[in-house]
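User: Can you fold this complex?
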Amino acid sequence: MTAALEISGLAKTFGDKVAVDHVDLVVPQGSFYGLVGQNGAGKTTTLSMAVGLLRPDSGTARIFGDDVWAAPARAKQLVGVLPDGLAMPERLTGREVLTYLGLLRGLAKEVVAERADELLAVLELDDAEKTLVIEYSTGMRKKIGLATALLHGPRLLVLDEPFEAVDPVSAATIKTILRGFVAGGGSIVLSSHVMALVEQLCDHVGVIDRGRVAAAGPIDEVRGAATLEDRFVELVGADSGDAKGLSWL
Amino acid sequence: MAVAMTLVRMKIAILRHSTKGQRGGMMASGGVLGLLLAAGTIYLAFLGGDWLAAAYAVWMLGWIIGPVFSGGGDETLRPEFFAPLGLPAPRLASGLLVSAFVGVAPVISLIALAGLLFAATPGNVLVAVPAMVLQLAVFVLLSKVAVAVLGIALRSRVGAIGAGVINGAVLAFLGQAWVFAVAFGQGGQIPSFVRYLPSGWGLLAVQGDYLALLAMAVLIVLLLAAWAALLTRRTGANRPSTRGRRPMRAATAREAVVAKELRTWSRDLVRTHQLTFALAYGVFFAAAPLALGWTGMLPWAAPIFIVMAAAMTSNSYGTDGTALWLTLMTPGASDVRGRQRAWLVTVGPVAVLLAVAFTLVTDGPWALILASVTALLGGAAGLVPLISVYALVPGTDPQRRGGNPLRTSEDDGALTGLAYLMMALVALSGAPALVAALLYGWWGVVAGAATGALCYWGFGLLAERRLAAQGPELLHMMRTGRRPQRGGMAFKLPDLPKAQRTIVMICWSFGAIPLIPQGIVAAAFLANDRLRMSWFLATYMPPGLRWPTAALMILIGLTMYGVGLWIPYRAKKRPPVYD
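Assistant: Here's the predicted assembly.
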């Protein structure tokens, strides 16, 4: 079976800094894949290259077999993306963002209206009907971002830090949506540095360290007998044992 | 004083980091230009009359109005940085004031103020030193207060429109200063009130009126208090606007882009301000000669408005920041065409209304005005997306702009350069139709419609292709806020020797003067048999030399732009030398 996402040999250098160093990852169809790594390990850069938002120096990314860079139109139709910290059309309301994007995706006007209604209700954004996105809180921005990723009915979701700054109640809603998406045959890749979250949600995990894949595969294989957190610390080589305390506290 | 010294050290450290690379180049060329102006000002100290007072008035206006165009003035140290420290507002304001004296612009202004040393009456030379410092403090503080007031004005629609009208009027009248010089004075005389503006107080002091020193000190204290009060109001987000919203009725991808753009136009107060400014500038610039009873310039308000509106919107993609990712994720939908249509819908009706109304008032010249309006509208609607993808200046994402809404980009020098470039290019796009109208009357309108449609279609197509080919690079540029160091994808000066860089800057800055007013506009006057027009040289020439003079001016202007483009082009072709 074709992989939902197949990354092979992706590499990116910024100036002198090697951000991503020939990363290979395979996200099987129907899997819930967690990408973990320290800040600056290259998660966001890898995901950006995988969905066509950042041009790689070398390597390829295929979404259900379609090359993101050679056949972008088909590949991009199958994927929904939630990038971290990028702007939206800020002067639109949540509903207007969804209408705008749905039409850009080529959906019929009525379909867009129905889906927007449902997304806004489920994500509890319908109270903010008159609020422009620029006035949204960080958590609300994540939710409207997720709504734009889900709107066109993609088969693969690529989510960069989807739970950051999201309150526990909204997080539970999002988890339910994501689990339902996977149960329905969809595939998800999400990046996070919260190990507990990845252990709770994902069935596959990839550990990125300094631009390389340190370990990847089904989560039970990667963590073995230890917890994911202990295994992660072991893999990235940071020694948690003698972390320095602060001298004045 | 401890706060002030810390802030000064911080600013020096930041400036030292930013003198490298391209911003350093911009700073250097700006500095050279400033030095030339300062030298010119000092020269005026040796002339009699009120020339020096008039020059200082222009410097003062520059300090007040400049930040509106260069993205909110010097924001190296932002008040928001220090909000968590809980400093009392007056201490923070005085600290920021002291640090505001560190920089290229204050040093150059101080050099210009050295003219006071030469203008001092015998025995008052020593007075000139405190007068220079106080005068500079007045300039800097006026600038800071103006930016703060504008920042607060831009939080409400009424404020944004009001500020746009005032800024447009002031700048237009400054551009038309000769009209008022003629209207007030008796030819070549500076009206005497100029001496009593705050910009002239230093001059009064060195001429023996010591009270002026005291007056400056009082003014400084008042401005400082006002600024401190405004700073406390600046922090905090914009007031949320929760008016009723009209539902989006778009049904196709292109309509959706138009709807998005039109909503952004009407809801973003910075854009409201820019458009009002362009409109006010056009109207006041064209109406100023009415003070002399001359109505001939009035119908040109519409073309001026179009050119100005294009210049103000020249960084269309940059101001939207990283929202570009949505465009990249939907490759089939045409963002460029939607933006073009929205630009036309926003600017077009106002421009046409203005053109028709004012041309009715003056009863012509219909062909000239309609030809240039059609040509310029099409040209601008094509050039705006084209320039904004080819010469993108990375913007600050709208949600991260903080307390200064004018600050749409960190790279304010490039933003100003882009606006000038746009003005010149849009004006050029109207030139063929204008010439056709001058020579063949109504055929000019046909020519205007043809070139306008061609520019709209062709430049839009080029912009679309560029966006498709370089979209990820543009997004990356906006994500990092920096242009890539190499690759030559953006509009940037390659590393040129200083002398060449100065030539390029001078060509770009001043090429428009011979080309447009002295060339094209003068030709328009000649065609209408309007002679001895203010500063249009060709209209003063003996009959046989009039047309050659105008033609020569156009040639000089084109040559300047040619040289300005050719030098960097040649340098880019050469392989870079690493040492």
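Residues 253-492 of chain B form one domain. Residues 312 and 374 of chain B are 19 Å apart (CA to CA).
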